[in-house]
Specification:
This protein is of the alpha+beta class. Helix content is 60%, strand content 18%. A hairpin with a 2-residue loop joins strand 1 and strand 2. The protein starts with a helix and ends with a helix. The model has no long low-confidence stretch (mean pLDDT 90).
Length: 65
C-alpha cells in the first residue's frame, strides 16, 4: 500500500469512550473525504490543463467544495 494512504488512514482513527473504557473506531467517511481531497490536490498541482478539468469533475461528482 502507498505510504500516503497509510498516512491518511492514520488520521481517521478516533476513540469512543464508555464507562468500561475506550475503544478505537475507524471513520470511513473521513477516510473517503481525505482520499478525494488528495486526488483533487494531485490534479490541481499537475502541469496539464486536463488536471484542472479532472479536479473539477471529481469535486462535482463527490460534492466537494
Amino acid at each position: 500500500m502507498n505510504q500516503r494512504i497509510k498516512e491518511l488512514e492514520s488520521l481517521c482513527w478516533k476513540e469512543l469512550g464508555e464507562e468500561e473504557g475506550y475503544y478505537p473506531v475507524f471513520d470511513t467517511e473521513q477516510f473517503a473525504k481525505l482520499i478525494v481531497q488528495e486526488c483533487v490536490t494531485v490534479c490541481d498541482s499537475s502541469n496539464y490543463q486536463f488536471g484542472v478539468i479532472f479536479s473539477k469533475m471529481i469535486k462535482e461528482h463527490f460534492g466537494v467544495k
